[in-house]
User: Fold this.
Amino acid sequence: MALNFSHPIVSPVRIRNGYFNGGDSYGFERDRTERSGGVSESISKEVIDLLPSDPFDMNVSTFTYITDWLENLDLEYGGFGRNMIENNQYNLLASLNLVWTNVVRFQPFSTDLTLHPVISDAFFQHGLELGSTLESANVERHGLELGSTLESTNVERHGLELGSTLESANAERHGLELGSALESANVESSSYGDDEGVPNASLEFALRFLSLRDLLSVQGVCRSLRSSVQTDPSLWMSINVNYPLNEKITDDILFELTSKAQGKLKSLSLVECPKITDDGFKRVLETNLQLAKLSVAGCTRVSVEGIVSTMKKLKSEGTLCIKHLRVGGLCGMKEKHFEDLKILLEIHNCKLQNNHKPRFFRGGHNPYLLCDDDLPIDIEHCPKCQRLGLVYDCPVEDCQGEGGNRSQVCRGCILCIPRCVDCGCCINDSEYEETFFLDRRCLDCSWSLFDDDDNIAPFTGENSSGNESSG
Amino acid sequence: MSSKKMITLKSSDGRIFEVEEAVAQESQTIKHMIEDGYGNSVIPLPNVTGRILYKIIEFCTKHVAVEEDIKQKSVEPTVVVEDVKQKSVEPTVVEDVKQKSVELPVDDDAWDAEPSDIDEWDAQFIDVDESTMFELIVASNYLNIKRLMDLSAQAIADMMKDKTVEEIRKIFNIQNDFTPEEEMKIRNENSWAYE
Assistant:
């Protein structure tokens, strides 16, 4: 930016300890000892002597310094004079020299405060940006009562109306509202490099991809996000409660969460939630009549009887919409219940036999991972023992049938066909390793734990294959 | 190859882009405009800057090419994958003479990279700085490009994943405008989740 020489430029403004001492053009040469900053005279004189007095015919001194309260500025500049400066304060002075004689952009600071004191066109033509540690420490120590003292004729002539608002800068550490003159001079005290602290609308687009836990966190970030989260029922239409919230959620909390859907809840998945009872679950079902997908897998306090009776009640009222149910892991599943459920879910026998995605055993730690397939119900009769429960396929190639015709040989419940806790392959008579939790791990998976030299997993039985672990 | 109809798009900063109709129609907004008869004139996009429009065109071009390749493969299994690269035509930028030429931050490597599948390409595509990501999601919402919207929204959601309230504020530079009482109340409400 070119310097504007058309206007008479100010004589240097010297601000010392709150007292304006303007008017003289080389004030910095004099009365140096008066300054409380403890500046070394000789060094300053050397620097100042070396500097040309008025290289641009601006009728000003080479620089104007604002001494004490900028003494901790950490400035990067072209290296001019740095070698000659021993005192940090004169880094500033030399830098300011450079500011006036060159166009120098200062490095903004960690306080994230960027001042653009283009105080007046005549004064700062090149948009001097003083990134400053105008922290309260500096401000308060030096009083910074630039206020009224700066409202002198000199100041006004310079346009440097730092004004009484600088007193408020004493109180505000980083806010630093430098008053109307500087406001017009593009003072920015915004946070660095981004919006003015208001959440971008784009964040709201991302809300629907958040897990339940993250949604709860986002609610507490700011007002507008909280409002978005709480008032948008579409975010609450599908609620998945799994680790780590599954252990903590209670009936009341569940009811509160499901209420946010305003009756439009479509899918609810409660995986291994030990605090959810029949009553809580019933209350949710009765207030969310559009529920189509439900999983209570592993919720030990929810009884099969309770589920069946609630669903029967809704069916009799004509309000049952559930088409997909997951009850794996619930105790007490009897044949009678299964038949009732088949009627309630409108399952015909042929549907269960259809080709669907194979279900593999995925560890004793998270066996109820919500299956994405479209099966109406997850349990079936084990082909080997005929007990009702989860039936697994085998990932081993030899065990799989020909395309389109799945082999029934290696299909069965976990009691009939023991499986590896990591990969789900069948372990019948072959060798295996028993984990600390009495799970079985095939030898391939055991050896793979030792393959990575950096990360040798101990024999803890924890799932180390990167699957979602319940910890 | 038969000549394909080209659609002319103009960004908010005056940059002109010519794209194939199929690529332009990845955006439902533009598709509707074409259907309404504006396909023969310059379509202005006042809400999208040139830099972001360039990236969006890159995305749409790639996805159209991949889909065409899949279609062709299903008919002629012998089609070589390299055709995909040939079809990934760099969007033609026609400079508006009056406008000062603006250097777009073009990543040339994006055109040379051929990840094994489209998901990997998408992951590389969305691996950009925050502000670009925000602009992409807003622009893709305006242009109604579902795939890009989902991709960028998911990327932003991933940034928020498993973060505390303070961490989210810090990442996105959001001011806490709750009063201390309100904040206490919210913390109590959610305390069950963090015990």
